[in-house]
Amino acid sequence: MDSITKRLERIEFHQRLLAKMHTMEKVPFYRLVIEKGLTEDEMNEVLDLCEEVNQRFKKQLEEGLVSHTTLLIHFVGMLNVKLAPKETVESLYEQGIFPELMKKLAAIIPADVSTSKFMN
Fold it and tell me: Given pLDDT bands bounded at 50, 70 and 90, which one contains residue 90?
């Protein structure tokens, strides 16, 4: 069970995100963060993961690779367990966070992927 301090920190973080939102439709990733109860650190870990995968993606493009399945496997394997991979990729794309990468991942991610199913 979360301590009261941790819960309060998460609520304050969610309020800061809400203050940035003009409409929920324009910030679907933030909405997802709030719906799934991620902490600020957890959200930052997701964004750091996106940055890492995006760097790998750019390198693969430079090398002429056309299959990016390894990036998807890494992304799904490292994604916070509170988040569904497909929903996360779609919300990141719609919010304009690493759009080229998210478009590529969305194109190769199975519709019913979950972390455990995809990794087995």
Answer: very high
